[in-house]
């Protein structure tokens, strides 16, 4: 007797959310709508991504700006696979037990960067709590591979928090990315439900340590709003980031991926985003991007040029 096991049924993308009650997904206001992707350059970018076996956060996280960015050949590469060891309540990236690291990924990413002709590239990853260094050496290998293939390309990384991974941050910083981004995502009072696997003050300290190790690296962090946070909490978060000497702050609207994800509380108006930008600029950030469609990697190349100019201006050059 032979027992056949049917493996054709796809595993749920978010098994930890399957038994959660459905929540109402609010209808998007006019100011949050975007055009559907499909331009010839978008398709060319998509082909390059596929040919090099790459994963992009643009697709995995369901970014609303994918049409605009890919039509400019801007794609944010997501390394170390597409399965995350965390289960953040807001995130649409698949959760579960990740596969082994691909030793060819650094060269594949570097090849794609060259084919796309990128002057500035953003590299992010899933959380890899299963790895002894949280994937720090893999980040460094990718940075070094890009440097070797296209020396003039500036590199921005968006990293996990490397929680309880002693020495991991130092490995990444030693590879000298141009921008080190780590997102706080939300205010401290929301961490238990929105980002339960992370620790707010650990993330603040991570960003502060980057500056202590190498002050030349630009640091960056971002949050979502519309999760039920209070305005005064956002302003305190700005102060916490400035105490860590963070250079660049991004603020964008949270968009609920499915009915099982953390429920969206409200759509923040464009006027409120402008108000946050005004306050953040007054608090001393070199650069602030605050709008409904702002995302960590949106307009990253243009933002990097502005960051450099703002630093020079502050130094009196």
Q: Can you walk through the features of this model?
A:
The structure is a single chain. The protein is α/β, with parallel strands linked by helices. It is built from eleven helices and nine strands. The protein has helices at 40-51, 57-60, 66-70, 105-116, 136-149, 168-174, 191-194, 200-213, 231-243, 270-282, 300-314, and strands at 77-79, 83-84, 94-95, 120-125, 154-158, 179-181, 218-225, 248-253, 287-290. It has a seven-stranded parallel beta sheet, with helices on both faces. It is globular and about 45 Å long.
Features:
317 residues, globular, two-stranded parallel ribbon, alpha/beta
Structural class: alpha/beta
Order of helices and strands: HHHEEEHEHEHEHHEHEHEH
User: What helical percentage do the residues reach?
Assistant: 25-40%
Estimate what percentage of residues fall within beta strands. 5-15%
Tell me the overall shape: globular
What summary fits the major beta sheet? 7 strands, parallel
Strand order of the largest sheet: 1-4-5-6-7-8-9
Q: Using DSSP, what is the number of strands?
A: 9
Model regions low in confidence, pLDDT < 50 over at least 5 residues: 1-9
Number of helical segments?
11
User: What integer is the average pLDDT?
Assistant: 88
Radius of gyration: 19 Å
C-alpha end-to-end distance: 80 Å
What would a concise description of this structure say?
By secondary structure, the chain is an alpha/beta fold.
Topology:
Blueprint: H1 40-51, H2 57-60, H3 66-70, E1 77-79, E2 83-84, E3 94-95, H4 105-116, E4 120-125, H5 136-149, E5 154-158, H6 168-174, E6 179-181, H7 191-194, H8 200-213, E7 218-225, H9 231-243, E8 248-253, H10 270-282, E9 287-290, H11 300-314
Parallel strand pairs: 1-4, 2-3, 4-5, 5-6, 6-7, 7-8, 8-9
Helix pairs in contact: 4-5, 5-6
């Amino acid at each position: 007797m032979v027992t056949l096991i049917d493996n054709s049924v796809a595993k749920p993308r978010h098994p930890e959310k399957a038994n959660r009650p459905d929540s109402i997904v609010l209808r998007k206001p006019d100011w949050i709508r975007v055009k559907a992707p499909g331009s010839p350059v978008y398709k060319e970018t998509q082909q390059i991504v596929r040919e090099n076996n790459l994963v992009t956060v643009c697709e995995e996280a369901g970014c609303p700006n994918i049409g605009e960015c890919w039509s400019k050949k801007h794609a944010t590469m997501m390394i170390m696979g597409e399965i995350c060891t965390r289960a953040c309540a807001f995130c649409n990236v698949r959760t579960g037990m990740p596969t082994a690291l691909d030793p060819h990924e650094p060269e594949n990413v570097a090849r794609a960067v060259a084919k796309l002709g990128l002057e500035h590239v953003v590299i992010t990853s899933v959380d890899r709590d299963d790895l002894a260094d949280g994937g720090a050496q893999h980040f460094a290998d990718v940075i070094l591979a890009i440097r070797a293939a296209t020396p003039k390309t500036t590199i921005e990384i968006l990293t996990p928090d490397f929680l309880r991974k002693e020495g991991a941050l130092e490995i990444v910083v030693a590879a000298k990315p141009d921008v080190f981004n780590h997102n706080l995502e939300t205010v401290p009072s929301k961490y238990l439900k929105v980002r339960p696997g992370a620790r707010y003050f650990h993330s603040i300290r991570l960003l502060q340590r980057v500056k202590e190790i190498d002050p030349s690296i630009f640091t960056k962090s971002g949050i979502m709003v519309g999760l039920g946070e209070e305005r005064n909490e956002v302003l305190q978060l700005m102060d916490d980031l400035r105490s860590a000497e963070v250079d660049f702050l991004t603020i964008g609207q949270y968009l609920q991926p499915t009915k099982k994800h953390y429920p969206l509380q409200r759509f923040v108006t464009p006027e409120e985003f402008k108000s946050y930008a005004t306050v953040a600029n007054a608090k001393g950030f070199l650069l602030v991007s605050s709008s409904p469609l702002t995302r960590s990697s949106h307009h990253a190349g243009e933002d990097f040029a502005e960051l450099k100019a703002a630093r020079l201006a502050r130094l009196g050059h």
